[in-house]
Specification:
Strand order of the largest sheet of chain B: 2-1-3-4
Largest sheet of chain A: 2 strands, antiparallel
Number of helices of chain A: 13
Structural class of chain A: mainly alpha
Number of strands of chain B: 4
Order of helices and strands of chain B: HEEHHHHEE
Structural class of chain B: alpha+beta
Number of strands of chain A: 2
Strand content of chain B: 25-35%
Distance between the termini of chain B: 72 Å
Largest interface: A-B, 77 and 60 residues
Strand content of chain A: under 5%
Largest sheet of chain B: 4 strands, antiparallel
Shape of chain B: extended
Radius of gyration of chain B: 23 Å
Shape of chain A: globular
Helix content of chain A: 55-70%
Oligomer: heterodimer
Order of helices and strands of chain A: HEHHHHHEHHHHHHH
Helix content of chain B: 25-40%
């Protein structure tokens, strides 16, 4: 590859097309998580209504804009509007008209959350996903037609996921120095919020130190996910998820929004849970199947490679292989 | 296939480069204040293998004398937020009244809190492993007058 073709190759890689059905599924998942985050994962943000404005220490973005000091009315209005809009956006309808307000309101919700003395680092990739989903265009579940706009949305979310790991290693060297590797950082984390499992692990000599070397190695090597084969990519994503499973099992940190963003690496269009349920119920009742569509898009050129794959660009759609008919907003 | 226009593609590539550069700058020179572009500094600190580890808690005494642990569930204030503003509380202990008020707001029928304190439990650590020993230190305390 020459220097002249490199920018074009990067541009193609950034906008590598994906099936619209994948965008529809990712969109539904991301917006449903916004609603779940409001009521299940971070309900404490809403509790900021009890706290005096004196404890509000706005972040730079809050000071620049400038955003108002949270009060009960503001917090309640954002909560309810965001809840309703995110559930509406999860249907996949009006991706821009609903997607942009959801992004802006969730961003403001996060600024409120992070402006009382503690900033969380588990949602950069999720914020990126919310910022780019409105640009991905209309997409229906099961639609196999490929989209470059959607491909870019997933690709930059994937990059943000990997940056969260790779740049975390960088931050460790910046703030902790090379001695981070042999420090007592994991012991401290376990003391502060360790589970019984973590207490057991902590007793094994040098295991926590070895784990610290492992964490740095994994974070520094995480960008390799973009160059490995599709099969290995699945294994790497599984490893990423297993890392967070262990983290949750030991120090109860879930990184939930990051885990949702990480589904951008997966062939989500193959899941079709509602479609499968409808077909299963139809089969059980012995009646006619409600749809003669396959549960997953027909394997074809447009599905070559896994999400974010580096497979060669497939040929244009053949006229004799039409895309699967989309179902109206049914995952 | 839905292909991007030349303008759409250029715009997206440009946005990717700019946001990536800002994120990189945040990692190199930024602080938490620059959210969402600040450094991913979760657990990035470094402590010698034998340094004691702090485990901070906030507790209150109500007018019946009962000691009540204050946390995210009953005040809406996370422990890490108390730690993040600890220097403010140390400089002005009366700020702990806000924590008591947050509790009272969520528990209108409960006895009034007359004291709030930040207590740090220092756990012993040796060779990067907890020793199981600890000492408590009250770092900030506020009493209702």
């Amino acid at each position: 590859m020459t220097f002249r073709t490199l920018p074009a190759a990067i541009s193609r890689w950034l906008t590598e097309p994906v099936p619209r059905g994948r965008i529809a599924a990712f969109r539904t998942l991301v917006y449903l998580f916004v609603a779940a985050d409001l009521v299940i994962f971070t309900p404490w943000v809403r509790h900021k209504t009890s706290i005096s404005g004196e404890l509000y220490q706005p972040l730079l973005v809050g000071r620049l804009l400038p955003l108002p000091t949270p009060n009960p009315v503001l917090v309640e209005v954002i909560f309810w509007v965001l809840l309703v809009l995110s559930l509406a956006a999860a249907t996949g309808r009006a991706p821009r008209a609903l997607g942009w307000p959801v992004f802006l309101l969730y961003f403001e919700w996060m600024i409120i959350a992070m402006s009382y003395g503690k900033v969380d680092h588990d949602r950069f990739a999720f914020l990126v996903a919310l910022a780019v989903l409105p640009t991905a265009g209309r997409a229906r579940h099961g639609d196999g037609v490929r989209t470059e706009a959607g491909g870019w949305a997933l690709r930059v979310t994937q990059i943000a996921v990997v940056c969260t790991y790779f740049l975390a290693a960088w931050a460790k060297f910046r703030f902790g120095g090379i001695e981070w590797l042999t420090s007592s950082v994991l012991a401290r984390a376990i003391i502060r919020r360790g589970t019984e499992l973590a207490d057991l692990i902590a007793q094994v000599p040098y295991l926590l130190i070895a784990a610290q070397f492992g964490i740095i190695a994994f974070e520094l090597l995480s960008p390799l996910i973009f160059v490995v084969s599709a099969r290995w990519r699945r294994a790497v994503v599984a490893f990423f998820y297993s890392f967070h499973l262990v983290t949750f099992a030991t120090i109860t940190i879930s990184f939930a929004p990051h885990l949702v963003a990480m589904t951008s690496f997966l062939e989500l269009e193959r899941l079709r849970p509602v479609d499968r349920l409808v077909r299963w119920r139809a089969r059980r009742s012995g009646g006619a199947v409600g749809s003669d569509r396959p549960a997953t898009p027909r394997p074809g050129p447009e599905l070559a490679g896994v999400a974010g794959g580096s497979a060669p660009t497939p040929p244009p759609e053949a006229p004799d292989a039409p895309p699967v008919q989309p179902s109206p907003a049914v995952p | 296939m839905d292909a991007l226009t030349r303008r759409g593609r250029t715009l997206r590539v440009g946005i990717t480069a700019v946001v990536g550069a800002v994120l990189l700058a945040g990692t190199l020179w930024g602080q938490d204040d620059h959210f969402p572009f600040g450094p991913f500094r979760m657990y990035a600190g470094s402590n010698p293998p034998n340094d004691p580890a702090p485990d901070t808690r906030v507790e209150a005494v109500d007018r019946t004398g009962a000691v009540i642990p204050l946390n995210q569930d009953n005040t809406g204030i996370r422990r890490a937020e108390i730690e993040g503003q600890q220097s403010r509380y140390a400089a002005d202990p009366a700020l702990l009244r806000q924590v008591a008020d947050a509790y009272a707001d969520r528990h209108p029928g409960s006895p009034e809190l007359v004291e709030v304190r930040i207590v740090v439990r220092w756990y012993g650590v040796r060779d990067g492993r907890p020793t199981g020993t600890f000492v408590d230190e009250t770092t900030v305390s506020w009493r209702a007058s």
